[in-house]
Amino acid sequence: MSLSVWYDLSLFLLLFALFVYVFATVAITDLRKVYLLFHFLMMLWPLCQFATGITHDRHLQLFYVTLSFVALSMLGSGWLLLTAFLTGNASKLGRKRLLLLSIPAVVAAVGVAMNPFNLFVKPLEGGYIHREYGPWFWVVIVILLSYFFASLSFLFRAFHSCRTILTIKKQVKITLWGIFVLATFALTDLLLNVVLREWLPIIPGLTSAGIFISALFFVFVIKRYNVLDIVSIAHEDVINTIPYGIMVVDENESIIEVNKALRLFVDVNVGDYFDMEKFLGSVRIAGSSRRFLEHYKHKNNILSQIEIIVEREPVSHFILQASPIVDSYRMQIGRILMFQDISQERYLVKELNRQNEILRERNHSLDSIRNELSMANQKLKEMALTDSLTNCYNRYYLTEQLTHEVKNNIQNRAPFSLILFDVDFFKAINDRYGHVIGDEVLYRTAQTVKQSLRSTDILIRYGGEEFIIYFPDTDRRLAEQLAEEVRLLVESTRILVGHENEPVSITLSMGALSVENFDIEHMPGNPEGYLMGLLAEADKALYQAKSNGRNRIEFAG
């Protein structure tokens, strides 16, 4: 028995191992099913070559040869379908197009299976180990080449398109290598072992080797770029179902991603340059765009937004929000621009104001109801979990959520620590620079503190310049270490404010408290009151820190 037979078996086993690997490590999606079918068809070729070589039954040999070429015929359409998915063109393939694309492959496979008048293959030397191919073989080759060039068309268009994002271009490049390797091996096999077989010795296993190497390329693309990852696929679906227009630009203002809803606000494509100043000049702004453009041009790492009015019928209002994308060094590498249509809200507000005016004129007694509604709306705003200035949690979170955390810690006998701190001499900053700069200092201070916290720690704006840090699962020794890290980081941070040449140096005074002796602590009947008592103790320690010279940590008890 020829060694080439075992060579084909080895390649089949390696392809089968890749098949099991993809099956076991990738979530179930339609794209995954397409790839697994494609991979299965590739596996049949070396398997059938092996089976043909080990049997002496002429009919079995014909069966295996036929099965291998049927799989090869169908592989062409699977090849084209897979490249369409890899390049993001799958959405353009409806049922009718899929049917049309599969017809040539089906016709080729039927001709191979029927082999009328030996038009596809006939035996030599009494068997099909050595065989002669007929006209239908060349029909199959032409169909496969057609699928090959169609796949190349998909890949080259995606690779050279300015609208294709960089990640897809990378996976397309690797896929192109895989296709060229398979095509090179298959065409070499065709040339040496079919066209020139009368003059050259047979070199077995070329197509099998090409299939295995190209499968390695495909599996690398799938695992490296999460092509079949359900999370990545769901991410794109979720982005496209969001009713807000979303645009992602890089640091050079080139558009790298958009969603479908963006078309309702602005007509741009991936790869275009987005000129924010030019765009704002083409629409009417509610208020002034100067501050927004200053933050945008100077790449300040803060979220900013502006209301835009588009003068068309009907007039539309929307909020443009610019959020920075920063790397691990807090350097801005791009932005997310979100366009939120608030036309309906503006209309409702206008209509509500009109109705309120009518109601005011008709019956002054409704003023009390309107005042109650205003107070209710104010309470709802105050109940928001996040402080709008610093993006920290607020006091509502403190009373509603942190109370449960403290109660659970005591119940589970888990140590925890609280730190109450404020910015030293913050009033002097407000008096010298104004409240706008004071707000900026509070925001920068909060962001600096967040950098030194663990993922489980919680930062809360308690009020004014006072903040609370909650350290779960933290005893006094660890709390001292963590608090000192926060203090040193803030002390070393310099904040540029206004037009001053010298940056502002900020320090913190901290009052800390640790709960770790559960022989004394017991389950509080009033958790909220208990938490307030803890904060009162921490506040005493904070007062002591200020009395002892500020920029220090004092522990209660």
UniProtKB/TrEMBL annotation:
Domain of life assignment: Bacteria
Pfam families per UniProt: GGDEF (PF00990), HisKA_7TM (PF16927)
Enzyme class: transferase
UniProt keyword terms in alphabetical order: Coiled coil, Membrane, Nucleotidyltransferase, Transferase, Transmembrane, Transmembrane helix
EC number: 2.7.7.65
Residue ranges of domain GGDEF in the record: 414-557
Coiled coil: 342-386
Alphabetized InterPro entries for the sequence: Diguanylate_Cyclase, GGDEF_dom, HisKA_7TM, Nucleotide_cyclase, Rev_trsase/Diguanyl_cyclase
Annotated transmembrane regions: 6-28, 35-56, 62-86, 98-116, 136-156, 176-196, 202-222
SMART domains, per the entry: GGDEF
Molecular functions per Gene Ontology: diguanylate cyclase activity
Annotated protein name in UniProt: Diguanylate cyclase
Organism whose genome encodes this protein: Paenibacillus medicaginis
